[in-house]
Structures are given as C-alpha cells and as structure tokens.
Amino acid sequence: MTDPKRALITGITGQDGSYLTELLLEKGYEVHGIIRRTSTFNTDRLDHVYTDPHNDEARMFLHYGDLNDGTMLRRILEQVEPLEVYNLGAQSHVRVSFDSPEYTVDTVAMGALRLLEAIRDYQQRTGNEVRYYQAGSSEMYGKVQEIPQTETTPFYPRSPYACAKLYAHWQTVNYRESYDLFACNGILFNHESPRRGETFVTRKITRAVARIVAKQQKKLFMGNLDSKRDWGYAKDYVRAMWLMLQQDKPDDYVVATGETHSVEEFLELAFGRVNLNWRDYVEFDPRYLRPAEVDLLIGDPAKAKKQLQWEPSVTFQELVELMVDADLEAVGIVDPDKVVHPELATIRRTQLSQSMA
Ligand code: NDP
Ligand code: GDR
C-alpha cells in the first residue's frame, strides 16, 4: 500500500478548517492540523471526525502551534512532511482588527510569511515539493474600484485585516515567482454555514432568530444594514481550495457566487423563515460600525468555473434557510417532518432541483 497524501492545515479549528478536514479525509488524505493551546477545548467543529491517535485507524492529527511562532511552524513542517499546506489561520474578524491591529497583522501577514519561509527552506533542503494555499479575501478589494470584482481588479483594502491579507497575497505571489513554489491565492468572498463564528453578521442573525423563537433573547443589536456581500456556502468554497492545489500550475482565483445581497435582505429572509418581521426585533448599536466600511462586494467566479470546473451549489435563500434551521435545531426546535439534518436536506434539495433542471 502507498502512503496516504499528507496535508497540513493552519486554522483547522475554524469554520473552513473543519469542512476542509472532512473533504480531505473523504479523499483519503492524512490530515494534520495546527491548534492553539487554550484553557478550554476549542475543537468543537472537529470532534465528529476525531479519532484517538492511539487508534491505528486515526487519520487526523493535531499539533500545538501558532502562526506567531515561527520555530513551532518549522518543527511541525519537518515532522509532518506534508504534500499540501493550507494556510487558513487568522484573526479573521474585520471589526476586531480595528481594535487589535498589531495582533491581526502579526498573525495574518507575518504568519503567512513565517510559513512561506519555513516551506521554502524545507523544500530546498529535502527536495520535496510542497503545495501552498493562501486564504485570501474579497476584503482586499475594499473600496469599490470595479464591479464585479475579478482576479485583475485593483485592490484597495479598508481595514487592518484587509491590509494584512493583501501583504500575505503579494508574498504568496512573490514566493511563487522567486522560488518556484507551487503557491496559490484563493480570493474568497464571504462564505457561511451553521459552523460560522457567532459574531459574523449572518450567524449572529440566524442564531438570534432561533433564540428569539425560543424566548431566550428579545432584541438583536446591529450595525450597518446597507452593506452588500456576495455570500456563498463554506462547504463549496473549501472544495475550490483543494481544486487549486490539484492543477498543473499554481495560480490565483476568485471564488464567489456572482450575486450580491444586503444585510437587510439577509434579515428579511432569516426572520421570514419563522414568520417574524425583523423590524420588530432589530435595534441599531453604533458599536458594530467600522471606522471604514466595505460597501459592496460581488465576485466574478468565471476563471474558477472555467479552469477548476468549480460551481457553487447552494443559493442565497437556501443558505439563509439552512443556517436558520440549524440554529433552530440547536435550541431544540426540530421540525418533525425533517428526517435528516437540515444542512443535508437543503443540499439534497439543491442537487435534486439541479438534476431536474
Ligand atoms: P475562523 O475565524 O472560523 O477560523 C480562524 C482559524 O484561525 C481558527 O482555527 C483559529 O483558531 C485560527 N487562528 C487564529 N489565530 C491564530 C494564530 N495566531 N495562530 C494559528 N491559528 C490561529 O475563519 P474561517 O474558517 O471563516 O476562515 C478561514 C480563513 O479564510 C481565514 O484566514 C479567513 O481570514 C479567510 N477568509 C474567510 C472568509 C469567510 O467568509 N469565512 C472569506 C475569505 C477569507 P482558534 O479556534 O483557536 O481561534
Ligand atoms: P465581513 O463579515 O466583515 O464581510 O468579513 P461580517 O459578517 O463581520 O460583516 C459583514 C457586513 O455586515 C455588517 N454588519 C455587521 N457585522 C457584524 N459582524 N456584526 C454586526 O452586528 C453587524 N451589523 C452590520 C458589517 O459592517 C459588514 O458590512 C468576513 C470575514 O469572514 C473575513 O474574515 C473575510 O475575509 C470576509 O468576510 C470576506
């Protein structure tokens, strides 16, 4: 038997890290992830795929490390000897990056550089090719320069987070061109799921809807409802990451749905799912405003469609519904008619409607 392919993921405990782990395990990979030491468990999103490493069947392994600690990154790389490295680790909250710019930049920008340097040395010393994925963001487009945004649209970052991602983006290009590293930038637009962190706007809304129905919460305090985002489904987006590393040549790709919707539209649909009017519950709180806002994001995924044969499989409405349904289930409200997890039910509906079209 040949050795399984080995992948190393930073940010494995996050939304994308958990979906990417599932995908790679399904594809027969051995998956290694870097986790931060915390005083309480932080592996909730991974528990369902975790097997005790003492078990011969185990194919997922966790290593303590941090993007702010280059020595640890080098040590883990030497130990794991991965074929593919996915750099998903980040202080990924845009609003928080204004409060904590130095930490954000150290993790997001310098963290990527530390990892690239470690890979460059490892590859040079061993002769083993390592393929690198950098989790880039549509936030790098910032202030609108062009609609829709493509791989050639000029960047104009509007937060410490976006500036840091832009640095990581260009270093990735630079390492590809300078050291012939197989390094790809995914420029991913917002992608969501029931595993989305609770302080991002979509999950904040769907969680509040469920808690309001369950009488655990009365009001929802929000910031700017006018901004527009191109929202997709996280599970689709991790597939694009993997596809980028399977190509003959490294390149950069926009991953998006090509549709944009306002925060208000999201509220409308999410509260509408349980026959409530959002205007009865939502109140404004200026603390959720950002010093500089990104007003409009809409991506053109034509290149990913053509070269990666990648397509999003979940519509905006389905995304809102599957997130609301999952949060309803989390507070104990389960529609008895639904025999499978709502996340699966919605995807099956999508696949069915696609096959009927
Ligand atoms: P999450 O915020 O859910 O996850 C971030 C991950 O990074 C967590 O595992 C977190 O660990 C880890 N992390 C944070 N700080 C460090 C550090 N100093 N060292 C090592 N790991 C660290 O993000 P998502 O899963 O949503 O996003 C994945 C990546 O994609 C991020 O880089 C994000 O910036 C980027 N991105 C996300 C988009 C989206 O819409 N989701 C769109 C475009 C880009 P812990 O659990 O311990 O906090
Ligand atoms: P974003 O996502 O900044 O696009 O970054 P977020 O969900 O935080 O905000 C989207 C928009 O909603 C507005 N908004 C609020 N946002 C939050 N979090 N909380 C509120 O109460 C609220 N009210 C209104 C925001 O102002 C914003 O316009 C996400 C992250 O995942 C990044 O890591 C990633 O790179 C980008 O998506 C693409």
UniProtKB/TrEMBL annotation:
Protein name stated in the entry: GDP-mannose 4,6-dehydratase
Residue ranges of domain NAD(P)-binding in the record: 8-323
Cofactor: NADP(+)
HAMAP family: GDP_Man_dehydratase
SUPFAM superfamilies: NAD(P)-binding Rossmann-fold domains
Family (UniProt): Belongs to the NAD(P)-dependent epimerase/dehydratase family. GDP-mannose 4,6-dehydratase subfamily.
NAD recorded as keyword: no
Listed InterPro entries: GDP_Man_deHydtase, NAD(P)-bd_dom, NAD(P)-bd_dom_sf
Role noted for this protein: Catalyzes the conversion of GDP-D-mannose to GDP-4-dehydro-6-deoxy-D-mannose.
Alphabetical keyword list: Lyase, NADP
Record's catalysed reaction(s): GDP-alpha-D-mannose = GDP-4-dehydro-alpha-D-rhamnose + H2O
Keyword NADP in record: yes
Gene Ontology terms describing biological process: 'de novo' GDP-L-fucose biosynthetic process
Listed Pfam families: GDP_Man_Dehyd
Residues involved in NADP(+) binding: Y132
MF terms (GO), sorted A to Z: GDP-mannose 4,6-dehydratase activity; NADP+ binding
CDD domains with a match to the protein in the record: GDP_MD_SDR_e
EC number(s) stated in the UniProt entry for this protein: 4.2.1.47
Major enzyme class: lyase
